[in-house]
Amino acid sequence: MNSILRSGPYVQSENGIYLCWFLLLGSHCKGRVLPAAPARPSLLVGSQQGEILLTVLCVKCEFVNSSKICETQSRYCATKKGQKCLLWVATSGESLSYGAQACWEHCSNVTTMKGSLKMQLTCCDSHSLCNKL
Prior knowledge:
Elements: E1 5-7, E2 10-13, E3 16-23, E4 26-34, E5 43-48, E6 51-55, E7 57-64, E8 75-78, E9 83-92, E10 95-105, E11 110-114, E12 117-124
């Protein structure tokens, strides 16, 4: 697997999506769960009483600095039912001041101004990593 994207027990590569167990001494993958789908890289996570649950992978960072670098551990999260990817940024003029990225429930697009500081929450679920800066 070359380019690997990990979210919980799922690993996505160019060859498809694999179900894996990450253990202290290494990892074990149980074959391909879904073929790669570059046009819409959403994951089929499972079903519940006949309902198909689709999820997208989101960038997860608790604090992005003004240079667009994640100051905390940069990770990925997989959306659950009712969640979307969130990109939260605070800008001053055209410059990024700080931000955050996450999987978020009850997400809505909001823009507020406080003096010269503009705070913008952008929610998306159109494709994986749609909240990437």
